[in-house]
Amino acid sequence: EQIEQKVVLIVNKDPDTSGSAVTSRETTTTIEGLPTAVSMQDELNLTVRTVYTDSSLPGKNVPSAGFSVYINQTPYEVSGITLQNGEAAIKIPVSEANGFHMGENAITVSYAGATNENYRALPSQANETVTVNPIAVKMQYDTIQQTAAYTGLKQSCFVSTVNVVRTDNGQTVDSQVKPEVFYRQDGKNVVPVQPGSYEVWFKVTGNQYDVIEEKVGTFTITAAKPSIRLTAETENGNSVHLYAKVDGVRNGSIPLGSISFYQDGTIIKAQEKLVYGEADTVVSGLKHGGSYQFKAVYEPDDKDGQTYYETVTSEAATVTIKEDSSTGGS
After folding, report:
1. Which of 63, 207, 259, 321 is placed for a possible disulfide with 114 were both Cys, Cβ 3.0 to 4.6 Å?
2. Which pLDDT tens digit goes with each residue over 240-272?
3. Tens of pLDDT, residues 54-67
């Protein structure tokens, strides 16, 4: 008895050829030249290589074809580059724009597959990882050496923007960055209010580098210049009562210290203590018909180890004692 059997043969054909039968073959794609770690703004110089998985096949190279690259599943444009003789060279800048982030990153290369007169090379892909580390950077800035007078309020120095550059080649990473500013005394963060010298520190934070903190100069708050008023009034014919009033800055400490009174350039009362900013003294025995010039000099005391105000001298007050000894003054 004869049995008739029909066999259907299915073959893959190259759509670009005249219809000759070809056999599908698996391929293996690899990424070569990938370092284990890089920094932002580095450049990856890679070689993509695709071969037949069965290395015993005649015909060494897979057919030329395009391939795709993905950085953390984000496509990276490689149009115009194809595998030639099974390999292709690509350059990939390490940047956020290209899909990289700090830490571990996945790189995928997919060979599209192609057909030649011998085989249909099937698609394949390679998966690798690379760690992106923070860039080693430093700040570029104008050193700060600034002063301001005591006001009793919080003060700050003028700060311009800074540039952040790589330490290895000076390439700019961030430009015109507004730094966070803080002040230190004796290794502690402080608020600049009291007179004294303050270290100025900048802090800059970026996506591609670790936080940078650096001392950039000095901000000094100097003692304020208080106002002083002197009045002179004649009493009892030939005596003069001198009143001195010292006012500090509006929001500042009350001036402490003393007043020294001068008559015609000669001290007549030394270091009379201020009481609520005031001091007075009486000058007696002045000659009738004489004209006298008086001044008051304020000398500050330290308060908590700080000198809040400068030494200042009043405007002169001139008094003429009349012949008839009547009360008068200017």
Report:
1. 63
2. 999 999 999 989 888 999 999 999 999 999 999
3. 988 766 789 998 89
Is it the case that residue 8 has pLDDT exceeding 60?
A: no
- Find out whether 130 and 107 touch, Cβ atoms under 8 Å: yes
- At residue 24, what are phi and psi to the nearest 5 degrees? -75, 135
In the 3-class helix/strand/coil scheme, how is the chain assigned residue by residue?
CCCCCCCCCCCEECCCCCCCEEEEECEEEEEECCCCEEECCCEEEEEEEEEECCCCCCCCCCCCEEEEEEECCEEECCCCCEEECCEEEEEEECCHHHCCCCEEEEEEEEECCEECCCEEECCEEEEEEEEEECCCEEEECCCEEEEEECCCCCCCCCCCCEEEEECCCCCEEEEEECCEEEEEECCEEECCCCCEEEEEEEEECCCCCCCEEEEEEEEEEECECCEEEEEEEEECCCEEEEEEEEECCCCCCCCCEEEEEEECCEEEEEEEECECCEEEEEECCCCCCCEEEEEEEEEECCECCECCECCEECCCEEEECCCCCCCCCC
